[in-house]
Write a structure and sequence with these properties.
The complex is a heterodimer of chains A (about 100) and B (about 260). Chain A has about 100 residues and is mostly helical. Chain A is about 80% helix and about 0% strand. In chain A, helix 1 (about 5-25) packs antiparallel against helix 2 and helix 2 (about 25-50) runs antiparallel to helix 3 (about 55-85). Chain B folds into three domains: about 1-80, Four Helix Bundle (Hemerythrin (Met), subunit A) (Up-down Bundle), CATH 1.20.120.1200; about 125-160; about 185-250, no CATH class. Helix content of chain B is about 60%, strand content about 0%. Chain B is elongated, with a radius of gyration of 30 Å. The chains are: A mainly alpha (about 100), B mainly alpha (about 260). At the A-B interface, helix 1, helix 2 and helix 3 of A face helix 1, helix 3, helix 4, helix 5 and helix 6 of B.
Amino acid sequence: MDPINFVILAAILFAIGAAAVLLRRNAIVAFMGVELMLNASNLALVAFSRIHGEIDGQVMAFFVMVVAAAEVVVGLAIIIAVFRARQTISLDEPAELKG
Amino acid sequence: MVNPVLFWIIAAITVIPSLALLFARKTVYIAMSIVLVMVGLAAAYVTLGAPFLGVVQIVVYTGAVMMLFVFVLMLVGVDQREDLRETIRNQRWIGLVTALGLGAFLVSIVTRVSIPVAEEGVSGEPDVIAFMLFERYVLVMEVLGFLLITAAVGALVLTHVPRLKPRRTQLEVQRDRVRVGADPVNKPMPGVYARHNALDVPALDPEGKPIEASISRVLEMRDQTQEGESFRATLDDPTRPDSSYRDSTSKEDGR
């Protein structure tokens, strides 16, 4: 089976993650959608690394993992800070800023 | 080449649990589904000749990142309800169509291209990756080190709460409680007279009446409390041995 199928799988996972970010109001769920999108891109990178027979794709995927870990730490800290200030993690609450 | 059976198993345990992101109600279930997706992706990496990345995926994602998510869920409370009001009209359909369109677009492009697959597979063993990381990509490694330190400090700064007022002593807390007329002592523990699952049975005050406030708020939110009819019935039962005392108290509050 051609490894390009894994790229198709990655595209499907990316779309599901994007749908979660667009549809869900819970900040944590939307954030998990972002994680899924990052992982889908990782899968595509590793699949391309296999297709081309080069190791660089795997190194890129490793870097994406590191950046994703840093992003999770800061993002969850922001969610906690917002929850402390507003007692909610709904993404629509900041819409009150419209006045 | 990849084993087709393995591919379909990986596809099933990544796509099906990830749909929980869209349809599941409880956030903890979603987090656990995403853990399963991460394990499936680790299997995919190993299949594609990246064993090191597969192990890192399990350690970093299922071990650290998703557990951090569950930890934050614990902090903000699992009983956070999602409000379904739409701030932008038809937002749900616009979002769904956009995501479906994105998926269809990507899949149609990927199925149209044909890339010749390299005959020999890559070796993603740790020593190969290590030589790559510390030779060609050593600068990126160092920049990522800075990034991780910055992220750690950023998380500390964001979650740190500076003390604006001096710390209140126990005496001041007690005086404030008395001034607003609240109960001056702690709430009583539930289930002093345990009949079955003691936590959902209210404590009784000296007159034998149940103290509603002794039941945990969480149990009420999950509808796991007792209605109390059966307990009232036994309390008001005149054939009980100490019913003379009960009768005098229950007449006073008109039951």
